[in-house]
Here is the input.
Amino acid sequence: MLYQRSSALFDEAYQYIPGGVNSPVRAFKSVGGVPIFMKSAKGAYMTDADDNTYIDYINSWGPAILGHTHPEVLEAIKKQAENGFSYGTPSELETEIAKLIVENVPNIDQIRMVSSGTEACMSAIRLARGFTGRDKIIKFEGCYHGHSDSFLIKAGSGAATFGNPNSPGVTAGTAKDTLLAKYNDNEQVADLFRHNPGEIAAVIVEPVAGNMGCVLPENNFLQNLRKLCDENGALLIFDEVMTGFRLAFGGAQEVYNVKADLVTYGKVIGGGLPVGAFAGRNEIMDHLAPKGAVYQAGTLSGNPLAMRAGLTTLELIKKDENFYQNINKTTETLDFEIGKILNSKNIEHRINRKGSMMSVFFHINSVSNFDEAAKANHSLFNNFFHFLLEKGIYLPPSGYETWFISDAIKEKEIDSTLEVIRKFEYS
Ligand code: HOZ
Here is the structure.
């Protein structure tokens, strides 16, 4: 494939934008090469500036669960735009989407809209601290909850990909309040509670981790977190930025039947426009301003275009009773068939999958925490990534990220993908 225009665009962007990108994970720094500049996306496909097309397995890192530019969402956004882009006042639309979510997601009474997953997690932590009157939080190595200071400690996603899991700029004062444990390690969490009695405000967790590659909860991990939080008066926060409305309409809370005290959202909730949210029971959410004293605000929070895109996306998902069954089945087929091909080539690997999230780890047969994810052969993943990219298959550009399958990926796209993977050779 030719990437002439992408290369030229990257060179130009590099002069005006730090690293040429507006979010580090897009830079191809770990896989090498020049990031591809896209100019359009529709259904299962994206088209780049050189007119190459790709079957997309990132789907904007999750939001495009219906596939790109779904005609009904497009129509709804256009119609909304006729009525104004942003009011800076309440609008009926905000209650409509809040009501749909509260009535269909377990354990939440109220939801506050923000503009990104980062904002949602940052605000949820502040609320947990305000509610409990405690300062410390527990997070897990390799989990990523956005780029606010308290979370950039052994963080996953781009922070892990580029080897900066503890970012400069995070003060020692902030870092000391973030306690770390290994994902899936029940004993370590119990120890942290034992050594910090009455000090831990919340445990925040990706109930299915998606930022160290896809890593599933094991050993009753989520149930155990619930129990430890209850025993110690701490809140359990599920970061469902990736899993919310993706694993099920009620997210991981529904799938694993574990109650969170606060839940954060992003990605699917905005249908491709910038939306995040956090939600919980009345007794906790009532502490938020203007009702309560915990301050949180945003000019574009509840933005009407974004609310319309999110609401239409969620309604489309809701009205298709086979929606989750279908995308999960597509992902299962992909997992099973890729596994068969890699086995036939004697390439040792592990595929982790939950619902429509999956990752392929090379040269390792089990991945249940960050240390194991780091032991996978990432340079082989990079070869795999480029081999597929060259043939029009777009995977996330890092072995520490998750593939997000959309409803637009059908048999034809799977067949084309498998045909390419069959030609992959490990050398
Ligand atoms: N949080 C997303 C997946 N790790 C990537 C979005 C980004 O950092 O640009």
